[in-house]
Write a structure and sequence with these properties.
Distance between the termini: 48 Å
Number of helices: 6
Radius of gyration: 28 Å
Helix content: 10-25%
Oligomer: single chain
Strand content: 25-35%
Number of strands: 14
Order of helices and strands: EHHEEEEHEHEHEEEEHEEE
Largest sheet: 4 strands, antiparallel
């Protein structure tokens, strides 16, 4: 079950008194325990109500009132969202919490509604379907996509080349021989122990993942189709230099030239089989 654990406001929190270092440290340790236990989904502290507003709904009228608000014991100073097995588990964890205030304080636990609670009203399941779509949209908005490139034995060579000519920054790189678990027999070619199992690098702020994969076809070359990596570079001199480096040993598919969308644009496939589109931004920034 999902619960909200609500830290009620107190005179000190409403006065804007910050916790001392000892309390901050204790709460940090407590949050680490929650995370390690796998129950904490989120949590934050809230500023005093004097920095907030309320919007009152009265028919079609919307009335905005600025804080502070008088009923301190009904205000919220902070919260967590937990995923727990039961209310008893939530209570047990709250009892372990350091006192979040310098005076007596209260923490309230409230379970979230679940779609099953509305089954009688949502008798055709349409609202549940809508909620599922919304939740999926939220998850996808927070997801991150990256290109994953397979170099078939030339990954380290490619990374070194991109470091030299594209100022690539390598954040992570480990080899098949670094695997904490033995590679299954026959899963990789016999000469791949020192090849790249996984790497991460950035070019112009774009995160790219790369590997040698599990197939050795260096002699056949590597062919990629259906996508290109795009670089927008502000300097014409730098753009021409980068384009030339990528074309060295590769193939120019479209030479650098002026287009209606860019003062200078070109397409090239580098010697590792990766397609690139390079362009200068238009003068209006679009």
């Amino acid at each position: 079950m999902k619960v909200m654990v609500i830290v009620k406001a107190s005179n000190s929190s409403e006065n804007g008194e910050l916790p001392d270092k000892a309390l901050l440290s204790a709460m940090g340790d407590y949050n680490e325990q929650l995370v390690a236990a796998g129950i904490m989904a989120s949590g934050d502290g809230l500023k005093p109500s004097k920095e907030g507003v309320r919007v009152r709904f009265s028919n079609t009228e919307r009335i905005v009132t600025k804080g502070p608000f008088a009923e301190t014991n009904e205000l919220v100073a902070g919260y967590w969202v937990w995923n727990v097995a039961s209310m008893d588990e939530a209570i047990a964890w709250v009892k372990k919490c350091p006192n979040p205030m310098s005076e007596e304080s209260d923490i309230e636990i409230r379970p979230f509604y679940e779609m099953a609670d509305f089954a009688e009203v949502d008798n055709d399941g349409s609202i549940a379907e809508q909620e599922q779509r919304l939740q999926q949209s939220i998850v996808m908005q927070q997801a991150k996509a990256s290109c994953y490139l397979f170099f078939s034995g030339r990954c380290e060579e490619a990374l070194t080349y991109y470091q030299t000519h594209l100022n690539a920054k390598i954040a992570m790189m480990f080899r098949f021989s670094d695997s904490p678990e033995p590679i299954p027999e026959g899963a990789i070619p016999a000469n791949f122990d020192d090849k790249i199992m996984h790497s991460e690098f950035t070019v112009a702020g774009m995160k790219i993942l790369a590997t040698d994969g599990c197939i050795d076809n260096q002699g056949d070359g590597v062919s990629y189709s259906g996508f290109n990596l795009t670089l927008t570079i502000d300097s014409e001199q730098t753009l021409r230099s980068v384009f030339a480096a990528l074309a060295d040993g590769g193939q120019v598919r479209m030479p650098l030239e002026e287009t209606f969308w860019s003062p200078l644009y070109g397409q090239v496939t580098d010697k590792f089989g990766i397609g690139w589109m390079l362009m200068l931004p238009s003068p209006d920034g679009n």
